[in-house]
Amino acid sequence: MNADDVVQWLKQNPAFFDEFADDIAQIFVPHNHGGHAVSLAERQLLTLRDRNKQLESRLGELLQFGIENDQISDKLHHLTVDLMKANDLASIIGTLEYHLKERFNVPFMALRLWLPAGECNLMEFSPVSEAIHRLAENLVSPYCGPYVTDEVLDWFEIGTGELKSFAQFALKTADQPFGLLVLASPDSERFYPDMGTLYLQRLSDLLSAAIRRITPDNG
Questions:
Q1: How confident is the prediction along the chain (219 residues), in pLDDT tens digits per residue?
Q2: Fewer C-beta neighbours within 10 Å, C or N terminus of the chain?
Q3: Which domain holds residue 17?
Q4: DSSP state letter for 124
Q5: In a domain, 57, yes or no
Q6: CATH number of the domain where residue 204 is located
């Protein structure tokens, strides 16, 4: 009979612990941390305490995640309200820049749009290459990580070596891209490949809708 068989038998015969309670009380086993032997009952209590500490730690992590998500949702709400108040593209872009820097602690952003600009001379309508159009088409979800193309790097008025991480996502109408937004940080851990992108995607949808609200007849 091996250890697994013993465990299985004990599970199938729980009355064993009542019938041989006195004998079990005389059994002592090594204590992993104390360096001395303890009774089975004490060992079980120590195991339960360890599990309780693990559960408390996990619960603390979940509570912290919940607090952080509430904070992000609140910031996104304020951004939404202010974008709804904006009446032109310059106001939308200024509102976005303010909220990203002051509320989301994102120090740098670059935006390029290829909607019909009319009389608008904002730098966000500067021409982009076909490679940028293809990039936007391929971004089915936000990208986070350390890499962007040289063309995208040139959009930032800062030494390119100072930017360590990026988030970039397409602005779309019915899956048709009309722009690219790139967030950048000198912190290499600010935007990392495995981070969640739910709120970045919501930001993309929100900004797309805000811009199309101002340009309803262009697509």
A1: 676 765 576 667 667 666 655 655 556 556 555 555 555 556 566 667 777 777 777 777 777 667 777 888 899 999 999 999 999 999 999 999 999 999 999 999 999 999 876 556 889 999 999 999 999 999 999 999 999 999 999 999 887 689 999 999 999 988 899 999 999 999 999 999 999 899 999 999 999 999 988 875 544
A2: N
A3: 3-27+37-51
A4: G
A5: no
A6: 3.30.450.40
Nearest to 108 by CA among 52, 171, 153, 59: 153
* 100 domain-assigned: yes
Does 46 share its domain with 105?
no
Q: Is 167 within 8 Å of 144 (Cβ atoms)?
A: yes
Give the integer Cα–Cα distance in Å for 62 and 28. 37
Q: How many domains does the chain have?
A: 2
Residues 6 or more apart whose CB falls under 8 angstroms from that of 161 comprise none
Cross-strand pairs, 101: none
- DSSP alpha helix (H) spans, 40-149: 40-85, 89-102, 130-138
